[in-house]
Design goal:
The protein is an alpha/beta fold. Helix content is about 35%, strand content about 25%. The protein contains 9 helices and 10 strands. Helix 3 runs parallel beside helix 6. The two termini are about 30 Å apart.
């Protein structure tokens, strides 16, 4: 579904991503892992068009994603939940969700019922401002907003960061349901190993801007954890 090949990216004179190859299989959940500062968020920003790439290709469903504008990438069927959530604090929950409708191909003008079924708290609080929600509720809102556009692929950057454990568990259950029952392809950046082992089918590990390991989730052994993931 998504293939990244030979991707290089620079910040000024600093070479941040080195010849990255990545393949995301349809219907699977893939986790991008690594210590802080190794290039995980940078890679997601390249995929979504927030950062330009120096060389390489990003192919999504046989289309050259790296040649598209940011808004075209969303309309191509990719839902993105950035690190920090980036909801609109002065808009209501419902208004935040409706923002995603503009990228839908079917021109739907109301929030689909299944969003509120996945996250009942959003239905209860749909007239409250986004900035009044807790961190965990804001994360659910950010995921719901990405799902409103009816994506074929969902990308999440550290969805459990700073979230209370009960909401982390709920988000894990939602990801599993979307991925394994509905068949939504998922790519996420995550560092919590129990969460990764619960939701992911495959993993990639970055270190100093390079891909250093990948495989099925049951191949994520203690040697890799100690060498590349343990702080």
């Amino acid at each position: 579904m998504l293939n990244v090949s030979g991707l290089n990216q620079y910040y000024g004179q600093s070479h941040t991503l080195w010849d990255i190859d990545l393949e995301i299989t349809p219907g699977e959940c893939t986790c991008l892992m690594g210590r802080n500062g190794v290039g995980k968020t940078t890679l997601l920003n390249c995929i979504m068009g927030e950062l330009a790439i120096e060389s390489g290709e990003i192919i999504y469903q046989e289309n050259a994603l790296h040649k598209m504008r940011m808004e075209q990438r969303a309309r191509s069927g990719i839902g993105y939940v950035p690190q920090g959530r980036q909801i609109f604090p002065l808009l209501t929950v419902e208004e935040n969700l409706k923002i995603g409708l503009s990228a839908r191909a079917d021109k739907l003008r109301h929030v689909p019922d299944f969003i509120y079924e996945l996250f009942p708290v959003l239905k209860e609080m749909r007239q409250r401002r986004g900035g009044d929600l807790s961190g965990g509720q804001q994360q659910q809102l950010a995921i719901g907003r990405a799902l409103v556009l009816d994506p074929k692929m969902l990308i999440l950057d550290e969805p459990t960061e700073g979230i209370q454990p009960n909401i982390v568990a709920e988000i894990g259950d939602v990801i599993r349901k979307l991925n394994r029952e509905i068949g939504l392809t998922v790519l996420l950046v995550e560092q919590k190993l129990p969460f990764v082992r619960k939701v992911a089918d495959r993993f990639y590990i970055l270190d100093r801007g390079r891909r250093v390991a990948n495989g099925k989730i049951d191949e994520l052994n203690e040697e890799l954890v100690k060498e590349y993931l343990t702080v």
